[in-house]
Amino acid sequence: MPHWECHYVPPERILGNEIHFPPEEVHHLVRVLRKKKGDKVWAVDGRGMAYEVALFSISPKEVVGKILQKKASVGEAPLRIVLAVGLLKEAQRFDWLVEKATELGVHCIVPFVSQGSQFRKKAEALTSARMERWQRIAISAMKQCGRSMLPIIQPVCHFADLFQMIPSNALRMVAHPGESSVSITQLLSNGMRSSQEVFLAVGPEAGFSLEELERFRNENFIFVSLAHTRLRTETAVVVLLSGIWQLFYQSHPLTHFPSQFPWTPPG
Questions:
Q1: Exposed / middle / buried, residue 194 (Cβ in 10 Å: 0-12, 13-18, 19+)
Q2: Structure confidence by residue, pLDDT tens digits, 164-210
Q3: pLDDT tens digits for range 70-112
Q4: Which of 16, 165, 214, 228 is at 20 to 30 A from 220, Cα to Cα?
Q5: Can you tell me the distance from the alpha carbon of 182 to that of 176, in angstroms, rounded to the nearest whole number?
Q6: CA–CA distance, 31 with 28 (Å, rounded to integer)
C-alpha cells in the first residue's frame, strides 16, 4: 500500500482561500512531520471536500496554508449507509467498531440500547467524553483510509427511536440468524443493485428480543444471516458491511467513483 498523509480541518477553520489547521494538526505538522513554509499537504473537512494546501505560515502554535485545489467526494462511493448498532458492554469493542465502520464507508452511526443491552440503566449516563472519544477515533480512521466524509455519530438512543431515522428510500436490513433470513449474496434479488441508501441494524451481545424482531418485520426489514456461527456484534458489522460493498461494486464499477487522492510512495 502507498503511504500518504492527510489532515482534518473542520469547515469553520476554512476561511476563504486559507486553511487554519486545528491545534492537534499543528502539533503533528510542526513537531512530527517538521513541515516547512512552502510544503504542500492534503486536508479534508469531513463533509466530502479535500484540499491541496501550500503552507505559508508555520509556528509552534499556528499553521496556515493557501488552498491550491479542491476535490469533491474524494474517497466516497455513491452509497449512503446508516449503521444502527446496539451499545456494547466493553467500551474498547465499540471503539474498534467505530474505527472499522468508518473505514468501511459508513455515513452515520447510531448507537442504541435495547432489551438485550447489558447496561441499559447506565447507557443514558454516558458522558460527553465517550462521544468525543468516538469522534476522535472516526477522524483518525477517516484520514487513514483516504475518505473525505466524517461519519455522523448520533447520541445514544432507545430502540424505538431508530425507526424515525430511516431514510425514506433506504434498503432496510437487520442482522439476525434464522430460517426466514436470507444470505448476504441473496440481497441482489432484494434491491441491492438499485439502492443508493442502506439502513443496517445490528443488535447488542444478547441480540434482539422477539418483540423487537416483530417490529423489524412490521417495518419491512430484510433479515440477513451472516455465517453458520454466532458472531460478535463488531464482527457482524464488518462482515455485513464488506458484503454490502461487494454487492455494490458488482453493479457500480470503481471507475465511476470520484478520483482518489494522488497518493505516491514516500521518497
A1: exposed
A2: 999 888 989 999 887 667 777 676 555 555 668 999 999 998 889 99
A3: 999 998 988 899 999 999 888 899 999 999 999 999 999 999 9
A4: 228
A5: 9
A6: 6
Residue type, 147: R
In whole angstroms, how far apart are CA 230 and each of 152, 175, 176, 235?
Answer: 29, 11, 10, 10
Q: Cell numbers at residue 127, please?
A: 458522558
Structure-block grid coordinates of residue 92: 474498547
In a 13 Å sphere around the CA of 132, the CA atoms on its Cβ side amount to 3
Q: Which three cell numbers stand for residue 56?
A: 505559508
SS3 assignment, position 153: strand
pTM for the whole structure: 0.89
Residue 106 has which C-alpha cell? 459508513
Is there a contact between 55 and 36 (Cβ–Cβ < 8 Å)? yes
Angle at 24 between CA 145 and CA 17, to 5 degrees: 80
DSSP 8-state class, residue 187:
G
Domain-wise residue ranges, the chain: 6-72, 80-251
pLDDT over 90 (residue 31): yes
Residue 264 — pLDDT band, cuts 50, 70, 90? very low
Can you name the CATH fold of 6-72?
Answer: Ribosomal Protein L25; Chain P (2.40.240)
- Among 3.40.1280.10, 3.40.630.30, 3.10.50.40, 3.30.450.20, what is the CATH number of 80-251? 3.40.1280.10
**∠ CA 137-141-143 to the nearest 5 degrees?**
120
> Which residues are CB-neighbours of 9 under 8 A, at least 6 positions away?
19, 20, 21, 22, 25, 43, 44, 45, 51
CA distance 153 to 132: 10
